Amino acid sequence: MTTTTRVLAAATAAATALLLAACGSSGGDAAAAEDGVSVEAAFYPLQWAAERVGGDRVDVSSLTPPGAEPHDLELTPQDVASLSEADLVVYLEGFQPALDDAVVEAGDAAWDAGDAADLSLTAAAHEDEGEEEHAGHADEEGAVDPHFWLDPTRLADVGDALADRLAEVDPDGADTYRDNAAALRTDLEALDAEMQQGLAQCAVTTLVTSHDAFGYLADRYGLEVVGVSGLSPSTEPSPSQLAEISTLVRERGVTTVYTETLVDPAVAETVAEEAGVQTAVLDPIEGLSDESAGDDYLAVMRADLATLQEGQGCA
């Protein structure tokens, strides 16, 4: 074989190998992932839902860094630029003011999960009648509670709607997105059944938490939530309001005041100390950190269930 022939043969073999490799990776979800259906999610629960529904067809990034408190999100110029470049921006109007202002950059790519979540609770809706002042929420009365993901059935509804929205962006992936959303719903309904059973018989039904993030969980499972701070953890109660909450803790036989992973526990610890009760960590799953009790939404929710069963004296 001549030198020229050997060179041509080698070139042909290399070209054939490249063609076979391309064929092996060009079908189905792998190609879509390589092409990149880019999704910008506002914070962790929306990121997790988008990853579950999108699967290998999407590339999901979170605008809220791991371990950061999403209420306090501040966007960099690079973050704002990413909104205009994304195929889909999944956010929750009213939850992160900085993003509400910037999401206009996404244009028609912006998708508010709140409509699918049915944000039916307000700050006043899950407080005691006649006792609104004790929780320090007078300034928030009537404000919409955005923390829907702590009710797994609402998060499942968001997953279904997100599948439809992704199918509009990527019609070839419609069946994949809807199948993934169905699998997500199965997991979330199983979680919901566990929580229904685990919280069905609790000695204490008043849930005193660091901030007012657990209204949807309480509404779903027959509890009543009292947040030491407001819907945003930056809302600080006055000394008189702290005293009123401490009195409520004693009167209702509350044995545990719950702190959080991403929020300074000092205020909640003050209430617990004043009332002579213990504290435990209850995660609102606004974001994951090294201190989270699990590596994804489902694991942290199950850890929260165990914490509630102990703290509320559930049979």
Automatic annotation (TrEMBL):
One of its GO terms (biological process) is cell adhesion. GO terms for molecular function: metal ion binding. Residues 1-21 form the signal peptide. It comes from the Bacteria. Residues 174-201 form a coiled coil. InterPro entries: AdhesinB, Bact_metal-bind_prot9, Lipoprotein_PsaA-like, ZnuA-like. Keywords: Coiled coil, Signal, Transport. SUPFAM superfamilies: Helical backbone' metal receptor. Gene3D superfamilies: Nitrogenase molybdenum iron protein domain (3.40.50.1980). Belongs to the bacterial solute-binding protein 9 family. This is Zinc transport system substrate-binding protein. It comes from Geodermatophilus aquaeductus.
